[in-house]
Write a structure and sequence with these properties.
about 260 residues; alpha/beta; about 20% strand
Length: about 260
């Protein structure tokens, strides 16, 4: 019994060491010294959204005085506020929100800053040249990264008209990606996902004509994107991590997301 007791004692002594052996708790302690930046817009009833969606409704169904607690009923489309677009959003039978593994939710964050170009031209589109310029400055976009396009369009929030920026003829003018940039990022650099501050990956000149070919491309190659990001002006172009999360909704075709960056 003494031997067994000694072995058991040794096991119990070793457990704390084993728990720290891979350094994750030390990593957590390190992360807690870093700055966290929320990249998510709070959402409510009538916030900027894609032109085809109705506003969210919100109703209190139980309340403190009568029931002792409060519960609310929310009704909104999946693509509401800062949100996830999984592959199935555009492609029948493709991956749904619950099929995206959690190891694709903590990623290196790359921010390609084109806000000055957008300030001069609302119809600006991010090209392969812009990606190459980022790489010339910072090195190759890392495999598995989340690449965000910074346009500062989020500063127009929560004004729907300012976000859509339509002219008298109803043509929307807001920035977007190009196919050349996206194909390079996904097919050459093998990134995991991308995101932007506008309601669409495609620029306003295209979406006005119901052309969503860029979004269809991203989702069609089995990747996800995040739309309506916030606070990209508060994170560096390289070196940060991003956490991208959403509810584990079965067969979900989209849902509001919570996104935050951890700065180096």
């Amino acid at each position: 019994m003494k031997v067994i007791g000694g072995v058991l004692a040794a096991v119990f002594v070793l457990l704390p060491v084993a728990a720290r052996a891979d350094g994750l708790w030390d990593l957590y302690a390190t992360l807690q010294t870093k700055k966290f930046v929320d990249l998510t817009h709070p959402f409510d009833g009538d916030i900027p959204h894609w032109k085809g969606f109705d506003p969210m409704t919100r109703k209190v169904i139980y309340d403190y005085d009568k029931d002792g607690f409060r519960a609310e009923l929310f009704c909104h489309v999946g693509q509401w506020g800062t949100h996830l677009d999984p592959p199935v959003h555009f492609h029948k039978g493709a991956r749904t929100a619950d099929k995206i593994p959690v190891n694709q939710m903590l990623l290196p964050l790359v921010v390609i800053d084109v806000h000055r170009q957008v300030a001069r031209n609302a119809d600006f589109v991010l090209t392969l040249k812009d990606v190459k310029a980022w790489e010339a400055k910072h090195g190759a976009v890392p495999k598995g990264a989340f690449v965000a396009m910074r346009t500062d369009w989020a500063k127009r929030w929560p004004d729907q008209d300012a976000m859509q920026n339509a002219d008298a003829q109803g043509t929307a003018h807001y920035p977007g990606w190009t196919m050349g940039a996206l194909k390079y990022l996904y097919e050459v650099r093998h990134i995991t996902a991308s995101g932007h501050e506008t309601t669409d990956a495609d620029p306003g000149l295209a979406t006005t004509k119901d052309d969503y070919s860029l979004e269809s491309y991203i989702l069609g190659i089995d990747h996800y994107q995040i739309e309506l990001l916030a606070n990209l002006d508060k994170v560096p172009e390289t070196g940060a991590l991003v956490s991208v999360t959403w509810p584990d909704i079965k067969d979900g075709t989209g849902f509001p997301a919570r996104v935050f960056a951890i700065l180096p």
